[in-house]
Each structure stands twice: as C-alpha cells, then as structure tokens.
Batch of 2 targets.
Target 1
Amino acid sequence: RFLPSSHTCQLILASLFAVCSSLAKDFSQMSAFGGAQLSCDVAIVGAGLSGLSAAQRLLQARPDLRVLVLEAAGDRVGGRTLTKPVRCADGESRGWCFGGSHMAKSHSRMLQLAKDFGLTVSEQPESAGKNILEIGDTIDRYEGETPNLGTLTLLDLDKGIKSLDKLSKTLMESRPSWTNLDGMTLSKKIEKETWRQATRQCLTAIAEPCFDGEPDRISCLQALRIANSAGGFLALLSDGSELRIEEGAQAVCTALAERIGSDRVLLSRELMQVSATEDEVLTPPLAVLSRIRFSPELPAPKRGLIEAAGSFAASPGWMTSAVTAVLTYPTAFWRSQGCSGDILSHLGSPVPGSAMPVAPIALAGEVTSPDGRQPALMVATGYTTEHSWPNAEARRADILSHLARFFPRPEVDGYVDYVEHDWGASPTGASPLPPGAAVGLCDSTGLLQPTGRLHFAGADFATEWIGTMEGAVQSARERPMRCCGGWRLDSEQYKIH
Ligand SMILES: Cc1cc2nc3c(=O)[nH]c(=O)nc-3n(C[C@H](O)[C@H](O)[C@H](O)COP(=O)(O)OP(=O)(O)OC[C@H]3O[C@@H](n4cnc5c(N)ncnc54)[C@H](O)[C@@H]3O)c2cc1C
C-alpha cells in the first residue's frame, strides 16, 4: 500500500525481484500503517536475492544514498530461497532448502556472495547408483547419463537435443525469427525436431524442470532464451548444479539484509501502485507487475508482456505451484537398492487410491547432509495437473506411495521427518511464459530496458542463468541500467553520470 503522495515522488524502481533507480529528490510513500511517510532516493521492490544484492551494491557505491527495500512478505526475506528446519536421525534439527538450493561451479556470483558472508559451500556427496526415469507406465533404471531407450530413440534424442542446443546458442546473434519461435510451444518444436513418441516424452520429462513449465504450454522462444543464458541447451543439461550452501541459500539473503541494515528493509510492504507525477514514469515485473497499477500506463510492448505473464501466472511451474518436500531417513536405503536417489517422472500412472490423475513426484534427488551422516531425499511434485490434493496428509500419502513404487515400502515409510513447502499456497509471482510473450524480453522495447527511471531486475530478467539464483544476482548487479541523468549499473560498480 504505497501510494506516492505528491509531486515530490521521483521514482520507484520496482521489480518483482528488484529495482533500482535514483535521484535525490524525495520519493514519498504513504504507508497503510498509520499514514507514515517514508522518503528515499532509491526504492527496491522485493527482498529476494536480486533486490537485496542490488541494494548492497548501491550502498557500496554510495553509502549516503537513502535506499529502501520494500518486501510484501510479512515474516521473512529471501523470496524463492527458503530454509526450514528438518529433524534428522540423530534427533537434531538442521536447515534444508525448499526453494533455490543447488549451484553449478560456474555460478561465480553466488559463490562469491556465500564466501563474502562466511557461509560454507560444499559439494553434494557423490551418490553412485542407478537413476530412475519413469514415463507413463515404463520405469527405466539406468547407470550414468543415458537411459535405456533403445538405439533408435537414443539417436533421435541426440539429434533433438543437438538441434535445440544449436538454436539456443545462436539465438541472440543469428536472430532467427523470434516471433515465429515465440508463436509456438516448446512441444511443437520438440515434435518438429524428433520423430519418435518415446523421444518426445523423454525430452518433455527433461525439459519441464529445466524451463519451469510444461512444454506444451510454454513459449519455445522463452525456453531457448533460458538455454541461451546458460550457454546452450547442452550446457544447461550438463552443468552440474552440484554445490550447496550448508547453512541454506536463504542465509545469503539474511546476511545481505543484515549488511544493508534492518531499518532499510521493510517487511509487509506490498507495492500496489506506481504513479508518476510530472515527468517520471515508474514500473515493476512480470506476473506480479500485472497486479500493480501504473499511472500513466506503461508503453504498449511492456504492458502486453506484463499482461501475458499475469494471465499465465496460475500455470503450473516450479516457482508457481510445485510442492517441495524433504524426507530425512536413518539410512540411505536407496543406495542399498543400487540407486542414486535421482528420479525423473513424466505422467507416471496414478498411485492406487489417489484422486490425482498422475503420480505426484516429478523430480526427486538425494540431499543428504554434506558430511554424509544425515540421509535425506528431496521430492518435488509435478506441474501436470491443475487438480490439488484435498489436504497435506493426502499429498504426503501419495508421495510416499509413489516412492514405494521404486523402493521397499517399509524403508520409504520409515522416515524420521517429512517437511514440505507448498509454493502454490503463497504465490511468488514467478511465471513461465506462454507463446507470444517472450519476444518482449528479447527485443529492445521489452522489459529489459528501463522505463524512465524504472528498472527491472530479478531472475526472470537475467541475461545469464535466467531463472536461477545466479541469474537473480546477475540481473541486479550487472545489466547496464540507465536512467535519465541518474545511475548506470555496469559490471564493475554503479557509476554516477
Ligand atoms: C522450488 C524451487 C526450486 C529452485 N531450485 C533452484 C536451484 O536449485 N538453483 C537455483 O539456482 N535456483 C533455483 N530456484 C530459483 C531461485 O530460487 C530463484 O530464481 C531466485 O531465488 C529468484 O530471486 P529473485 O530475487 O529474482 O526473486 P524472488 O526470490 O522471487 O524475490 C522477489 C521478492 O519480491 C517480493 N514481492 C513480489 N511482489 C511484490 C510487491 N508488489 N511488493 C513488494 N514485494 C514484492 C516477493 O515476496 C519476493 O520476496 C528454485 C526455485 C524454486 C521455487
């Protein structure tokens, strides 16, 4: 409820995930809590990784700036990073990540932040053994990286992956028709590049978690953008994500907020409206942006993109509707079954007695503590259903039944603790992009460009590692952002012009 109260409003930089901008006149806010007025030079909307690291950078460059970070959530900073306590076999509770957690060795900005705050980054203990791929009624247990799909399907898969890789790598330079690519779903593209049904199902199973959405609903261009930002589709598939922060990724946000100063990070402050008086125009990002009123209206391309993202926001995806659960166990029983704990499931048949049309788990993996002493699995539910469970108990029962399809029931049921987080219950505002919307993130009229003094940042607006924690930090710190007579953010530091 921040209503810029008068013509003194200079600018707001909002972004679902961060914002920056500047100038030293007052930006006045009228708080719903007693009408108190707050003034700042730069308002940053969202206390996730992106917003907090933007604030830190600004203050490093100009400690005298009056920077405020406004966060809608009432109880915490961190956004899509979330650490919760889970009880372990030794009776102690330890923090586990339920949102962003894994990093690749190339995620240098996140690794540097962890180092700056004295957090411990460790490698996921190697879990040898077979991986599980479930497609429909078929369950494949395979060693290494190549499922047992048969020679013809594997050749077809290889061809499909390579062609997506090539297209994604050259997306920005050779500029294939972005509009055509944005006019089709990723599934349509997969159909064009492959000829076997089994290949298409396998590629769909792989693509869902990579691109945060169902391939038959997301824009092919958006998927290619995401792959491009990671160095290509193959790089996205093969770049390990084997590192984790022992204290949990949310600890980076907590440390950033402490460094910035608690008086500068305001919780329970949801930006509802951005108004410009005189000559300034202000804005914020994607699905959440569609809930914010802009006065005057944003330019047409930005408005269109925001509306498209907003209308798609209820669509299934990692960040919108998945439930993540951590199960701690006395022993890593999956290993004694010769398995790594990695499960990828696409449209697995429903578990007996469930009201859900498909099996619940889309993805599972071992998240045993770095010292190897506290065995744990993380599971994430799929995107493939708009149905929901009647209650958390029914969901837990289905998840356990699904795991018991692969491992002995007594071991599966013998968990020490089961803790989950329903990302759909507290919407983050993140959204996969439907066909027709992503072109606005590629071209120069899109949201990557500031509007006046309003800048957009956040994981969705990264140019490297879109959709990840690394991307969230990169977008806030390194994309050049300019605003009339104000700030420029470049790869080194914020400079005043
Ligand atoms: C289940 C899950 C698993 C993931 N796994 C990984 C992983 O393993 N590795 C990885 O790198 N990434 C992963 N991610 C993605 C990663 O967590 C995010 O990309 C990153 O944390 C996003 O940071 P951000 O600052 O851009 O946005 P967010 O963290 O979403 O922060 C945005 C903030 O803005 C606030 N906000 C929104 N609207 C308003 C408003 N109107 N007014 C005020 N505040 C507002 C929100 O409450 C939120 O706190 C995962 C995400 C999820 C959900």
Note: The radius of gyration is 23 Å.
Target 2
Amino acid sequence: MKNLILFIGTALLATACGGGANTATNAGNTNANANTAPATQTLAVSADRPQKIKDLMAARGEQDNAAPTLKILQPAANATINGSTVKVKLELGGDLKGYSTGMDPNTHAGNHIHVILDNQPYEAYYDLGQEFELRNVADGEHTIRVFPSRPWHEAYKNEGAFQMVKFTVKGGKADTTKPATTANGNTMSNVPSANVPAASTPAAATGPTPEGKEMKQSTAGPVDLALPLLTYSRPKGDYKGEDAASIMFDFWLTGAKLKDDGGQYRIRYTVDKDEPKFIDKWAPIWLTGWTEGKHTIVFELVGADGKAVDNGGYNSTVREITITK
Ligand SMILES: [Cu+2]
C-alpha cells in the first residue's frame, strides 16, 4: 500500500500548492459555462511562486537558502552490477540549514531526492536511512542522476546538488514482459513488498524491505558528462483538481548557462501543438490554464543558433501528463 500513500501524499501536497497565479487569458474566451472545459487551452506563465508555495517556504525557516550536496556512494561510477536490482546509496551533505529528507506521516509530503535512471521520469527517495533500489533494470549501460528536492518537487540548484554516474548491468535477466509503469503512466509509486519476486530480494533480507521501484526497460544514451546537459524533472504524472491549477516546470542544467544567466543557451518547451516557448533563466516556472485530459510536453536544450543541442538524447525529452478536474 506504500505506493498509494505516496501518491496520495503528492496529490495532497500539490493540492495545497494550487491556486495563486491568476490567468490573464480569459479575454476572448466566450465559454459561458464554467464547468465546460474550453476546447482549446491557453496557458499563462508565471515565474512567481504560487501563494501556497510562498506560505510553505515561509514555514520552512532557512531551508530554502540551504545548499545541500549529494554523493552517490552506490552504484559506484563505472561499476558493473550483476543482476537487475541496482542499489542506490546516497550521502547528503553541504550547508543544510535544517534541510533533511523524509516524509511527514501526517501530510505525506516532505523533502526528498529525485533519482533518475537513464532519461526516465524520476523516482522520489524520501528516507535516506532506508535502502533504495531500482529493480528490473535491463542489461546494458545506464546512468543515474540525483538531486535534492523540496516537498513541492522544486530542485535545489546549488553546486554539488546534482550528481550523475554511469554504470553497467550484466546478466540481470530483467523481465521485459513486466509492465513498465502503471496504466496511467504514473511511476512515482513503490512496489509493494508482496509483489517483489523472491529472486530480487537479497538473501540477507534481515532489515525492512528496501524502498524500490520496477523500472521500465531503458539503457543510457551516449551521454557525455562534460557536455551541456538538460535534466528534465517536472511536470510528471497525474494532476488532479486544485493540484492542476498551477503546474511547475523545473529542471537541472549542467555545463550550460541560459541567456538571462549570462550564457547562450535556451530551454525550448512545447505543450501539445502550441507554439514553442522559451525559458531563459534557470528557475522554475508555473503554468496555469490547463484543460482536462492528456498533455504532451517536449522539453529541449537549444544553442545560440536555435538548434537543439544533443547529448545522448537526454537534452530532448517528451513527457505526458494527465489533468483531471
Ligand atoms: Cu519530487
């Protein structure tokens, strides 16, 4: 049931973060019935955090000024792992100012780490004291990327927060017939321990079952850690009710500076069949005005020439989110 709790927690938190920015896009909208979703969607963008998030920040003391850093203890860089279960061990350090990870049992929200296998949607890792593992990882080369996040999934962007390693899985016999994700595409949940095949549970299972997740089949792209790299983080999964009122776009950037940060790169994002839009400052944005249903987001790093900058396929990510009113 852990997966359900986690998901509900996220939904609750996001609900708490809804509202705030007002859309200024009603001009020309002749929709008389407020209960009818407009046929076309006009998104309004705000760099200003919704009020609910401002309130959360105020309640967090100095935490938002923290500079948390991570070390990937496991998997070691360039390690070869035998078997399809990849244990992830992280060490949190840096100037924490009260920042620590963990899920509040009442709100089911809290600081957590975003863990990204290859270029898949991230997994949320809340309890650094408990082992975390990625299961059903396919044979071949992989990457893991990690960075600390706030309860509303906004990444810390200080130096040392982001880490990435390459590793290889051999002889894992990952079950390629396993469903990659749940039917609605949500990959946030943990696998209930009862569903964990005996083969993937270490013999020395003396402690509590590690948190983990069946990963969909993927391998690393030919990514170069020294080249500009855009790491997609948010949005992800399902947004319901108030939760869908204001949706955050957030990302990590390494080896590249955006235009308004003194560099030459831009983030180009395209929602559904809208005109492409740009983000020129490395900070989250919030979008309002979503209509119900599935939406596709294309997120790309582009250079001064307006062309996409490739890095192993990771700099151009396509994601689907689902809005339920
Ligand atoms: Cu998150």
Note: The first strand starts at residue 44 and ends at 46.
